[in-house]
Structures are given as structure tokens and as C-alpha cells.
Design a protein that fits this description.
binds NADP nicotinamide-adenine-dinucleotide phosphate; two-stranded parallel sheet; Rossmann fold
């Protein structure tokens, strides 16, 4: 099967790309990226200036895909740094939903969209939150929009994956420290998302402990 991967230059996306390329059920990966990636027989890099418009040539590249793993996103420390969250909202909400719409219009059906959200995402936009409130609400809003989108399109399934801290495969001081709290190894979450893309599941929302 053909799988679309967004965010393949990032920490989680890089490992997810490796897992996709290794998986025999995946014959082709279309990486939507702002930057080029090392060549591989199974990989087709589709360079995107922004993630707002899906040109005819981009649609041509993704039209045979049956799933997307979406790992584009901002981490809490940078999301609200410069512009009071405008970039965070554009990248998190607008980019994700425009992609869902483009893939629903263009790709093979049934289609699976796997979204990397985060632990503590809050779908209830009225709830007051003590820690990282803006960030968790934006995540929750994307989740609800994706779930509503899937309700409105019977041949489109949105999966929500909520990791806590994602740690590297190597036993560095950093990863050993974070392993003490809620966390998941990057190879584990990546493998898990690739399996979801290939096989699907009746369960839609996956918490950190379930991913592990
Ligand atoms: N790492 C964790 O511990 C953790 C835990 C929970 C949830 N998450 C979530 O998982 C997702 C991926 O995390 P990560 O650690 O892999 O992050 P990362 O290493 O910072 O990678 C982010 C990816 O998003 C892309 N991106 C960022 N801003 C963009 C923009 N304005 N336009 C287009 N692409 C953009 C980057 O592309 P470029 O290379 O082109 O910049 C990169 O591919 C994020 O949503 C993050 O919040 C991460």
C-alpha cells in the first residue's frame, strides 16, 4: 500500500519514515516535506512550500495512498513563543484539517488518517487548565475537528495518538531521565502508527500507556 507521511524531517517523523520503509506491507511512501530527504527506492518526496494548498501535481502523487501519518506539529516550548499562538494554530489546526480535506477528496477509500496529538489534549474548549492550557486546547480542537470530519465522511477514519514524552531509542541521560515518567520510545510509537496505517483498528483514540 501507499502511505503519506507528513513531518518526516522531525524526531518522530524520521523514525516513522524508517519504519514505513522497512514494512513489507508498505510499497510506497509519499513524504510531504519542506526539505528534501535521502533517496530510497520506496520513497517519493513531494516538496511543499506551505501546507495550505494541494496542487494538481501533489494530488497526483498522493491519489493512490490509503493512509496518512501526520506528525507535523510544534512542541509546547516553541508553540507560543513569538506570536501569541498564531503559528501554533495555523500549523496545528489549519494545516491538519486542510490535509484531511485534500486526502478525502483525492485519495483511495477507505482512508486512514493517523494524527499525533499529545497526552493531556483537551477537547472541551471551555475547561480551564492549569498546565499548558492553550497548547492542550489546540490539540484537543484538532482532535475534535478530525473526529467530526470522520463522522461526516464514512470512508475516512481519524485515529488520535496521544504520546506523553517521546524518548530516543538510545540510552542517553536525557532518555533515561524521562523514562522515569510517562513516556514512550520513538521506535515504539512509530511502529504502532505504521501498524495502524496498515491494518486500522476499531479503537480510535490511543493513550500513551496503550501505545506502549
Ligand atoms: N517529541 C515529543 O516528546 C512529543 C510528545 C507528544 C507529542 N508530540 C507531538 O508530535 C509531533 C511531532 O513531534 P516531534 O518531536 O517529531 O517534533 P519535531 O522534531 O520538532 O518535528 C516537527 C515536524 O513538523 C514540521 N513543521 C514544524 N513547523 C512547521 C511548519 N510551520 N510548516 C511545515 N512543517 C512544520 C517540521 O518540519 P521542518 O523540518 O520542515 O521544520 C518537522 O518535520 C508534534 O505535534 C509534537 O507536539 C511530541
Amino acid at each position: 500500500m501507499k502511505v503519506i507521511l507528513a513531518g518526516s524531517t522531525g524526531f518522530i517523523g524520521r523514525e516513522t519514515l524508517n519504519q514505513c520503509l522497512r514494512n513489507p506491507a508498505i510499497t510506497s511512501v509519499v513524504a510531504l516535506s519542506r526539505r528534501d530527504l535521502p533517496a530510497h527506492d520506496k520513497l517519493q518526496v513531494t516538496l511543499m512550500k506551505d501546507f495550505v494548498s494541494y496542487s494538481a501535481s501533489v494530488r497526483e502523487n498522493v491519489k493512490d495512498a490509503e493512509a496518512c501519518i501526520w506528525t507535523i506539529g510544534l512542541i509546547p516550548s516553541t508553540a507560543f513563543k513569538d506570536d501569541d499562538g498564531a503559528t501554533a494554530r495555523r500549523v496545528s489546526i489549519e494545516y491538519t484539517m486542510l490535509a484531511a480535506e485534500a486526502f478525502e477528496e483525492t485519495c483511495r477509500k477507505p482512508f486512514r488518517f493517523i494524527y499525533v496529538s499529545g497526552a493531556g489534549a483537551e477537547q472541551d474548549q471551555t475547561k480551564s487548565l492549569w498546565v499548558m492550557g492553550d497548547y492542550r486546547r489546540i490539540r484537543g480542537l484538532v482532535e475534535s475537528e478530525l473526529l467530526n470530519f470522520a463522522k461526516a465522511h464514512s470512508d475516512f477514519t481519524s485515529y488520535i495518538v496521544r504520546p506523553a514524552m517521546v524518548i530516543s531509542n538510545e540510552a542517553t541521560l536525557h532518555s533515561l531521565f524521562y523514562r522515569l515518567g510517562p513516556s514512550v520510545r520513538v521506535d515504539a510509537i512509530s511502529k504502532f502508527m505504521v501498524e495502524l496505517a496498515v491494518k486500522g483498528d476499531d479503537k480510535i483514540v490511543w493513550e500513551n500507556s496503550e501505545i506502549k
